[in-house]
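Service request form, structural biology core

Requester: graduate student, group of Dr. S.
Request type: structure prediction, single chain
Budget code: on file
Notes: please return the result as structure tokens.

Sequence provided:
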Amino acid sequence: MSTPPNVVVVDDDIDHALIVRLVLSRLAPDAAIEVMTDPRALAQRLVEGPRGALVFMDRQLDGRDGIDLLPLLRAERPDLRTVLLSSALPEADRLRALAAGAYAATEKPGSLIGWQRLVESMLGAGVTAPAQPHAA
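Core staff response, request fulfilled:
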């Protein structure tokens, strides 16, 4: 029996955060899920967050580009596997996010089925393996 994953959802849009939490709770009912919707305390809370967590992080947090947070996060917490999500993510930005330390970077799905597939693929990729970029 494997250990339930630790998952952190970071999005200043509460509706999106709740959608991800709902999908996660259905796909991984034993997962420890933490939702962060206040970007002001984000850096500190992530640094203090659960070890080895899978992090679903919105790109735009209170007007700040999440890609710029990735190197800091990677330096402080290399055990986290951060999936950067954006409503629009050109290929150049996706590659920049991966180079900055994201485990994966992808556009937010437009349907619940899309969210389910995305979350399932990230959970299926394993959250205990060494953090390496993942093709989303």
